[in-house]
């Protein structure tokens, strides 16, 4: 038992319980208070760090525990930037990212070197090293873009790519300058750095994805998956340091490497965001504030002069780089502001440069004082530069985010005039619930308000004992679906009903709630020869015209490699053609998987037009495929880790092909180990006759009749008896 008299309240505080409690209350109340005065919460946490730090009220020391959590927070920001980046957008903006990275490195380097040499009187090596601090930046304000839901737009993606380029180049300058003074620079040094960097990149981009795919296939425990992701990230940070690079580069590239294994709408992504925003990133911001020492303002004119020049050059360099990027690529003004805001803050790499430069001793003065590569005035000026640039960055990104978010919401309001979309999940087996919910949330467009329903139907004709058992099973499945969706910050509307039979219950639910998309799983005996679809699914296909997804999940959707889509001839004539294409595009965008579509030439042209007319077209590989009688070609094209989507048709409709009748046999025999979706598009109700032959069969009969009549009326020619 600890007595009150035994508690130590001396400053700085040393009791770990009190320290952690204080930090948590700061994380809780600081954003609340600063939101009241319209100041970004990031600034609130930095100011709180200044107040409680060793240069403020001295409540806390910036000891190893604060440094540890702060370092984790910095790596976490870079990791989430790589993890949340839109890979499709990143590929499109690779060149823009490269150009911006060069701009944001070269411009601050040039103007910083000139200012340090002519205004501050530094020698050339010190001037170049000082200007490399201006070239670096930290994505401190990135969480603001996530909060506004615009972290995947072009300006943010472009800035993230440029961040890696400029930080790598700045750290290479640091290595060259320090190595020159220490005598370590030689051709062997650069060869060693290049080889180690290549090995590091190969491990991250080739080995990490293999490990991630294996792990996510084998283990579905939520806690294990989160710990695995953290372990991968910090292994990447360690390997980056071993290769001679900065840890933040390892964190970003690790996030990029496992990006497609963690869909944006997945429970795992939600947990990663939650823990980072609730704990690690606030710790980092508080630790940044604890560095600030306002007493440097009173240490003479020299310190103020150095700080003023550093702040002016740092801000001017990044603004000019953002302005030149805007003019080069004709970006909007708020995009320029976003780029400037995100690239203006300095923390991680800047501290690394100044501390290394400060610790390089060139000699001694006559009085015995050490002559440093970067003086104490530069060290103090750096702390003030960090405070000013972080503050300016937060305000700029907050304002730009508000403007861009308003524009994005205005675009969505225009799109809201389209017919309402409602998604229904039919729950039948407990083991398929999570997979069906994942698919439903994937086909739902980002930020869409379309409701997602989960339905469980009980047959009124069941015996009492069986009915009670099914009721208990249905309740568990419904709870599982609701909890799984809640883990992604999504809501599922539960529906339970009794009906004469299960198919009737589903059909009437579709009609009552105006459902546009139905998601079902295959029944358990589908691959056992006991009717592939089963009577429930077959009845629903006959009696409902809506879009239906029949999903067989052989592995988690986040472990897949590609999406391969087979489209029948004349699919473009069906009413739901554009709707299912948009759904498939949404799946591809949400998972980050490459999309391959096989269809006849005319269908491909229309699909290409639809894709190119979209405001954010995807990179899609369109492959011609005309003969559905050779459907088994896909047994070679579709790999084990591919998602195979077969666009089918109800019998008697325009895109119906007799080969689709063989789908159950093909899928059972050749694709049993694959994840696949059989997609029935929305088709006009009441315009079908199941007794009609397909157009191919009719065309063949007409062709035979033509041959026969020509042989009758053309004397002397042998008749073609081939049938």
From TrEMBL:
Residues 445-545 form the UspA domain. GO terms for biological process: proton transmembrane transport. It is a multi-pass membrane protein. Residues 25-397 form the Cation/H+ exchanger transmembrane domain. It is found in: Membrane. Keywords: Antiport, Ion transport, Membrane, Transmembrane, Transmembrane helix, Transport. GO terms for molecular function: antiporter activity. The chain crosses the membrane at residues 17-35, 42-60, 66-85, 97-120, 126-144, 156-177, 189-211, 274-298, 304-325, 337-358. The keyword Transmembrane applies. The keyword rRNA processing does not apply. Gene3D superfamilies: 1.20.1530.20, HUPs (3.40.50.620). This is Cation:proton antiporter. It comes from Adhaeribacter rhizoryzae.
